[in-house]
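Hey, quick one: can you model this chain's 3D structure?
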Amino acid sequence: MFTVMPTGKPSDHGCRLEMPFLHYINNPRDHWVACFGVPYGTALWQVGDSKEQNGSFNIALTKAKDEILDMKEGLGIIDGVTESDLMTMINIAWNNSFARVEKNKQAIVSRGWNPLNRALLLDDELRSTMTTKQKSREFLLENNIIFPPSDSATTVASSTSDESMPSIQNNVASSIANDDNMVPVPVTADDLNFNSNLPSFCLKSILSQDLIHETRDKINEDMNTGKELKDILKESKRISSGIIFKAGSVRLGKTVFDVHMENKEDKRNEMITKIKNDEKEYNENVAKAKAVFEKKSNLESMTIKELTTICKPLKRKEDGKMPTKKVDLINKYKEWNGRPVPTFDVSEYDVIGATDNNNNNIGTPNYDDDNFVEI
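Sure thing. Here's the predicted structure for all 375 residues.
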């Protein structure tokens, strides 16, 4: 029996990679297919950033503020906009922006989410960053994208190889030279205007596009190919949307959840090991301090080394560096003596699993590999 899974497309905020969210969407009993959007260009793909929603909200909020100020002025109230006015302003602006169903549908359609047709790949701003190689690959249908005829024609023209450019330029030069009405005028680099008006604008635009292409090529070169997503995540010091995207995925599925759990287990083991080592070191320092007191009971008769030994079990991390002079060591011993014994409790690390906002353990999904498959 085919089951339709609920699907969500959250932003790449860090909270999407925390255990409560990963646990919720990867629970086999109530499984979600969640794919975050790319970690850049959010103004293009996020529906909430559209002019129909966020853009209209900003305009409506300004109008709502003016309405409240006019109303207060008419009532003789001169305190301006106060904190208690904020919700009123937001309610007015909300109804004229995010609450408009038809406009929201229009924003969803224009971004290609419903119907799901990859409409953003035709966005002029995105296409302006494409290199010649990428346009050629696109034209050969390697990306499985179908373009309207007009756009396909543009792609063919723009994907002309660089090798063909000299012949085009030579043909133009020949036609100019053969024209009896044209008189060749020599132009040197000093005659070119790069400092103002249109030439300056064109030059800056060319340089800007070159930088964009270099950045895009660098991203493509950095894409980890030939590696499993799990291996890439395990090699990383932390899991972020950028690392997942760089690995060629946007899915917050079982693989991401498993690696996150393994990382938590590793950190848990590291903390338990550290606590036990700290306890062992403390007990050793106490034993050494007792051995010093068995030989000498008078602080004044002790050497600097012996004073340092009896101070070690009493010193805490926030105390700073250990004194090096005898008088200072004696004073610190008198100051620190009587401190409570530090605790070395590992019970809080005994249970591993997802936690809610109150740090209450909510368990670990029990996956049955025969019944659960990550799509």
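One thing worth noting: Residues 271-348 form one domain.
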